Amino acid sequence: MTARAAILIAIASCGDNASAVDAGLVDASVRCTATFTGNFAEISSSDRCAVGVLGAVIPGHTTLELTIPSTSLGASLTAQIDLGVSPSLGPYSSRTVATWNARGVQTVGNGVCLYSAGATAVPPGTFELALDAIEPIDATTRTVHGSFKITMFVLAFPSTECGERDTEMVEVGF
C-alpha cells in the first residue's frame, strides 16, 4: 500500500428516487446504509447519516453534514459541505463549492490511516453531490436526500499498513 491511496464514496439517492431502491443501493426500511469495499469490507446502517444545519460552519449558510458509521474505522467517516445561503436542489461539486471537507481515521496497531479530503486538504480529493430533497425539521435543521460521490486520499503514518489496495469504495443510501 502506498502512503497515499484513493477512497471513493458513492452515496446513492433515496426518498422519491425509485431507481436507487430498484437497483438495490437503498434499503427502503433503513434511512442510511453504507457498503465499504476495498481495503476492508463492511456494511453499516443508521437511522440518518445526512442532515443540513444552518450556521454550522459559516453564519447564514446551510452545511450538509454526513456521518457514516464504520466499525472498521472505529469511528464515523464525516463530511461537511457548504451549500450556501439558499441551497437549491441539483448538482454541487468540489469545482463549485469553496468550503468542504471529509475525514475518517482508522487506528492500525500503533499507527493511523487518515482518510482526508477537502478544499484545504493536500491532496484535495474531489466530490460530486446532487440534492434531491431538502425538508425543514426545525429553524436550523433540514432533512436531506440526494446522491454524493467523493474521492479521498489515505495518508499512512510511518510503519502503518493501511491495506493492500490503493482504493476504498463506499456506497451509501440516504
How are the SSEs placed, and which strands pair?
Layout: E1 4-12, H1 18-22, E2 32-37, E3 42-46, E4 50-54, E5 62-70, E6 75-84, E7 90-93, E8 100-108, E9 111-118, E10 126-136, E11 141-156, E12 167-173
Parallel strand pairs: 1-12
Antiparallel strand pairs: 1-11, 2-3, 2-12, 4-5, 4-11, 5-6, 6-8, 7-10, 8-9, 9-11, 10-11
Structural account:
The protein has one helix at 18-22, and strands at residues 4-12, 32-37, 42-46, 50-54, 62-70, 75-84, 90-93, 100-108, 111-118, 126-136, 141-156, 167-173. The chain is globular. With 174 residues, the protein is an all-beta fold. It has a 6-stranded antiparallel β-barrel with strand order 4-5-6-8-9-11. The protein is built from 1 helix and 12 strands, in the order E-H-E-E-E-E-E-E-E-E-E-E-E. Helices cover 3% and strands 57% of the residues. Mean pLDDT is 80; it is low at 1-30. The longest helix is centred in the N-terminal third of the chain and has 5 residues, at 18-22. Strand 10 and strand 11 (141-156) form a beta hairpin. It has one domain (4-173). The two termini are 31 Å apart.
- What composes the largest sheet? 6 strands, antiparallel, barrel
How far from one another are the termini? 31 Å
Number of domains: 1
Strand order of the largest sheet: 4-5-6-8-9-11
Number of strands: 12
Helix proportion: under 10%
Mean pLDDT metric: 80
Strand content: over 45%
Q: What is the gyration radius calculated from CA atoms?
A: 16 Å
Uncertain runs with pLDDT below 50, 5 residues or more?
Answer: 1-30
SSE order: EHEEEEEEEEEEE
Continuous helix count: 1
What class do helices, strands and sheet pairing give?
mainly beta
Q: Globular, elongated, flat, extended or rod-shaped: what is the shape? A: globular
